[in-house]
Design brief:
It comes from Gibberella fujikuroi (strain CBS 195.34 / IMI 58289 / NRRL A-6831) (Bakanae and foot rot disease fungus). Keywords: Repeat. By secondary structure, the chain is an all-alpha fold. It contains 25 helices and two strands. The protein folds into three domains: 104 residues, no CATH class; 79 residues; 265 residues, no CATH class. Helices cover 55% and strands 2% of the residues. Strands 1-2 form a two-stranded parallel sheet. α4 links the parallel β1 and β2. The protein starts with a helix and ends in a 6-residue tail after the last helix.
Length: 482
């Protein structure tokens, strides 16, 4: 939709008739006296074709089709349909040669292979070398060495992997080492990445940290800031403490989309001995991230909660400011384990979170989940300056009848329910008048707006009808008195 919106905007700027067509469509989507309407790709695509009809000739140029990630196929299909149904339209599309793109375009658009121009590569290399010299990442003894680097990289340049090669050169101590390295530069992007992964010569702890950085950058949703990533990978076991990080709001990114592709490509990774652990397999990475979330929730930083309401609120605000990953971890491990707690390490950590000898870890986590549920069903607000939503959640947590087993039932965590029943809870324990079966049928996972907890995009696919039962909802969402 972003590409279609950009095309429509560009066309609207070219003449008044095209602009009027887009204005009229905007009024349909955002009526003055009604709720905003959503649009699928068909309507904007048809509108773009209509706008193209207001011109004698249209030329559309789009670069980077291969960088559309999971949306690449849909983007290409939409562009093909625009080309098919628009009069006077010429289209130039730039992309690396990916099979899914080529097979869609080969019968529609002539393919022209284009190598990087030497002048383009030279300008790019000079700019990148100068940037590293300016930031003192690259400290050269002479101008001759700079020229040697420029000449070697331009002569072997393939465009996008110069950054990897420069980073490789930055780690050498003096010019003679760099001069020798220039004769052994990796020939392509995968080889360049492998060279950068010489972290394999470091300790196991460093290797594991790099592995988690790469994996979580590739799959974490929502995307994690540098501060959140650092907090995530710094955890080694339950307990311990973390220090405040001052890099919040900034993100690590891959140097190029193809770098991420490399780490997700099983065949490419396992062609080189010793780097298999860096393969960002979805299932393994999900398990690793869920494990880190559960460890994080049980850090000693979160094992204190005052009894006075005002002090509770202050502690929560301080926690959220100092440890921004906490709010992600609260829901993220639930989403990542939607298929069950089959992983032994994850099950052990989940049992630890729910077990009563560590009540403050559980209570802090429960409060955040409850707040998110109340936001989703409209009985709480994220912008509540009086903190009524937090106070309401605490009322339930303090109820004499409330136990972790009730939360496990509401989340459909069968393994945790079985564990708690066999250890210190009874199957007939009620939350006020609400039974465990009521909570299990109700299921927090069916709340509209919390689809990310169940890993489903369509909340209606769960049994939302159960949320029409007033007793279970009111019981655990806070209609208890202090």
């Amino acid at each position: 939709m972003n590409i279609l919106s950009a095309l429509a905007t560009q066309l609207a700027r070219q003449n008044d008739e095209s602009c009027r067509l887009l204005d009229a469509y905007y009024e349909v989507l955002y009526p003055p006296k009604g709720p905003p309407q959503s649009a699928d790709a068909d309507e904007p695509r048809a509108k773009i074709s209509q706008m193209c009809g207001t011109f004698d000739q249209n030329i559309i140029v789009i670069d980077g089709l291969d960088e559309c990630d999971d949306m690449t196929d849909e983007v290409v299909d939409n562009l093909i349909q625009i080309a098919d149904f628009s009069n006077g339209l010429s289209m130039a599309l730039f992309s690396r040669d990916h099979y899914n793109i080529r097979v869609r375009l080969e019968e529609k658009i002539e393919a022209i292979r284009r190598a990087a121009h030497t002048e383009d590569a030279e300008l790019y290399v000079i700019a990148e070398v100068d940037k590293r010299i300016r930031t003192r990442q690259l400290q050269l003894a002479s101008a001759d060495m700079k020229e040697e680097i420029r000449s070697a990289l331009v002569g072997k340049a393939d465009g996008i992997w110069v950054i990897c090669q420069l980073d490789y050169l930055c780690d050498y101590a003096h010019d003679q080492e760099r001069r020798e390295a220039l004769s052994k530069l990796p020939p392509d992007l995968p080889e360049g990445i492998v060279v950068c992964l010489r972290v394999n010569n470091s300790s196991v702890g460093v290797q594991n940290m790099v592995q988690m950085y790469l994996h979580f950058m590739a799959v974490a949703d929502p995307k994690l800031t540098i501060a959140e990533l650092r907090q995530t990978v710094s955890i080694t076991a339950i307990g311990g403490t973390l220090d405040k990080d001052n890099t919040d709001g900034k993100y690590f990114v891959f140097a190029h989309f193809s770098v991420r592709e490399f780490f997700e490509d099983e065949k490419a990774i396992f062609q080189t001995a010793g780097i298999g652990k860096y393969w960002a397999a979805q299932s393994a990475t999900n398990s690793l991230l869920a494990t880190q979330c559960l460890k994080f929730l049980q850090m000693d930083n979160f094992d204190r909660m005052p009894d006075v309401s005002d002090q509770k609120i202050a502690v929560i605000h301080q926690r959220d400011e100092t440890f921004p990953f906490y709010r992600h971890a609260v829901l993220l491990w639930i989403k990542l384990t939607k298929d069950g707690l089959g992983d032994a390490e994850i099950l052990k950590l989940a049992k630890s979170l729910f077990h009563l000898p560590q009540p403050k870890y559980f209570m802090s986590w429960y409060i955040e989940v409850s707040k998110n549920v109340m936001y989703a069903i409209g009985i709480g607000s994220r912008f509540d300056t009086n903190n009524e939503t937090t106070i309401q959640a605490w009322r339930v947590a303090r109820a004499p009848s409330f136990k972790p087993l009730h939360m496990a039932a509401a989340l459909n965590l069968l393994e945790i329910c079985s564990f708690l029943i066999s250890s210190d809870s009874g199957a007939n324990d009620k939350l006020d008048a609400t039974t465990l079966l009521d909570l299990a049928f109700t299921s927090i996972l069916s709340v509209p707006g919390l689809a990310e907890m169940s890993g489903k995009k369509d909340p209606a696919s769960r049994s939302y009808d159960h949320w029409k039962k007033p007793a279970p909802t009111s019981s655990w969402l806070g209609n208890n008195d202090d």
